[in-house]
């Protein structure tokens, strides 16, 4: 059987699939050519990340398709329910990228509290002519230790963020419609660890009491953070979104940044991908990355291996 990894797959994933008797194709096929390529090459499995969309048209036109795999968590680029109605397996890797996304959240937090997003732009331009001026401009940094981090969405990634926050000495508030409490294990050297029980709280309480807010929710029909929610937050709050574009009202966010209500934002995802609004890209108080939350070598290895294991398990009786 053939597997089309249209958005790429790690060498470990390829090795595991080939060992299981599958042929792996890593050719990048344009979106409009995916269905034709699947049929022409008798592909049984398509693997995607966030770039390729597997909608009703592909599902209807590819009768030999047996599995649609998503390397990562969110599956909003796949018509999941429709595919399953047609007897196609839809799989993902919800646990593989949690730590990578969580670390990116803290990369943005550290960037925000120490002005790295701005310093990295201005040091190449003025570092040799205005060193003292820049030193003064970036002199009012903030420590994360002792501050309160509000985590909206307390699934695997939210809990990974909580673990890192506790390790830094931060206080954690979490809010989730479906998770009432969680035990966060923080590991130390020589097998030592502590367990911290976190009971989720109402969203309004989180917004009122957090110094920083990070979102870890799936794609929504409406905004999770809009003008009303921004108004509830503390002054000089920092906001991070490494979840999904469209969960923050970007217009309201820019207004809050311009008004000084929000101190900084860190954005890895955007409402309009792959063409984010220029006001976001040019804003002096936003730390920016191009949707790379799960893009670490370690996470991609775990994703590739986990997808391979699921595919082999599902199809081993059909080969």
UniProtKB/TrEMBL annotation:
<feature type="domain" description="D-isomer specific 2-hydroxyacid dehydrogenase NAD-binding">
    <location>
        <begin position="107"/>
        <end position="293"/>
    </location>
</feature>
<keyword id="KW-0560">Oxidoreductase</keyword>
<dbReference type="GO" id="GO:0051287">
    <property type="term" value="F:NAD binding"/>
</dbReference>
<comment type="similarity">
    <text>Belongs to the D-isomer specific 2-hydroxyacid dehydrogenase family.</text>
</comment>
<dbReference type="InterPro" id="IPR006139">
    <property type="entry name" value="D-isomer_2_OHA_DH_cat_dom"/>
</dbReference>
<protein>
    <submittedName>
        <fullName>3-phosphoglycerate dehydrogenase</fullName>
    </submittedName>
</protein>
<dbReference type="Pfam" id="PF00389">
    <property type="entry name" value="2-Hacid_dh"/>
</dbReference>
<keyword id="KW-0520">NAD</keyword>
<dbReference type="InterPro" id="IPR036291">
    <property type="entry name" value="NAD(P)-bd_dom_sf"/>
</dbReference>
<feature type="domain" description="D-isomer specific 2-hydroxyacid dehydrogenase catalytic">
    <location>
        <begin position="4"/>
        <end position="318"/>
    </location>
</feature>
<dbReference type="InterPro" id="IPR006140">
    <property type="entry name" value="D-isomer_DH_NAD-bd"/>
</dbReference>
<dbReference type="Pfam" id="PF02826">
    <property type="entry name" value="2-Hacid_dh_C"/>
</dbReference>
<dbReference type="InterPro" id="IPR050418">
    <property type="entry name" value="D-iso_2-hydroxyacid_DH_PdxB"/>
</dbReference>
<dbReference type="GO" id="GO:0016616">
    <property type="term" value="F:oxidoreductase activity, acting on the CH-OH group of donors, NAD or NADP as acceptor"/>
</dbReference>
């Amino acid at each position: 059987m053939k597997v089309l990894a249209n958005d790429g797959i790690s060498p470990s994933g390829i090795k595991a699939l080939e060992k299981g008797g599958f042929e792996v194709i890593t050719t990048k096929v344009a979106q409009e050519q995916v269905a034709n390529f699947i049929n022409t090459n008798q592909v049984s499995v398509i693997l995607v990340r966030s770039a390729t969309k597997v909608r009703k048209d592909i599902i209807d036109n590819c009768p030999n398709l047996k599995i649609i795999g998503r390397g990562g968590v969110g599956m909003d680029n796949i018509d999941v329910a429709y595919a399953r109605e047609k007897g196609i397996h839809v799989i993902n890797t919800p646990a593989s990228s949690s730590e990578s996304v969580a670390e990116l959240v803290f990369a943005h937090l550290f960037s925000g509290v120490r002005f790295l997003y701005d310093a990295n732009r201005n040091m190449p331009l003025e570092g040799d002519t205005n060193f003292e001026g820049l030193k003064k401009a970036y002199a009012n940094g903030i420590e994360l230790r002792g501050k309160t981090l509000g985590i909206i969405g307390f699934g695997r990634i939210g809990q990974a963020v909580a673990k890192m926050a506790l390790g830094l000495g931060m206080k954690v508030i979490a809010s989730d419609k479906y998770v009432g409490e969680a035990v966060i294990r923080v590991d130390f050297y020589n097998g030592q660890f502590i367990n911290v029980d976190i009971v989720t709280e109402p969203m309004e309480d989180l917004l009122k009491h957090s110094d920083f807010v990070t979102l870890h929710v799936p794609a929504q029909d409406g905004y999770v953070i809009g003008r009303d929610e921004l108004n509830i937050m503390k002054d000089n709050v920092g906001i991070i979104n490494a979840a999904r574009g469209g969960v923050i009202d970007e217009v309201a966010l820019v207004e809050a940044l311009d008004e000084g209500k929000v101190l900084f934002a860190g954005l890895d995802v955007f409402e309009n991908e792959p063409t984010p609004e220029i006001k976001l890209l040019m804003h002096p108080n936003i730390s920016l990355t191009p949707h790379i939350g799960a893009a670490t070598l370690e996470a991609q290895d775990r994703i590739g291996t986990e997808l391979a294991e699921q595919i082999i398990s599902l199809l081993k009786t059909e080969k």
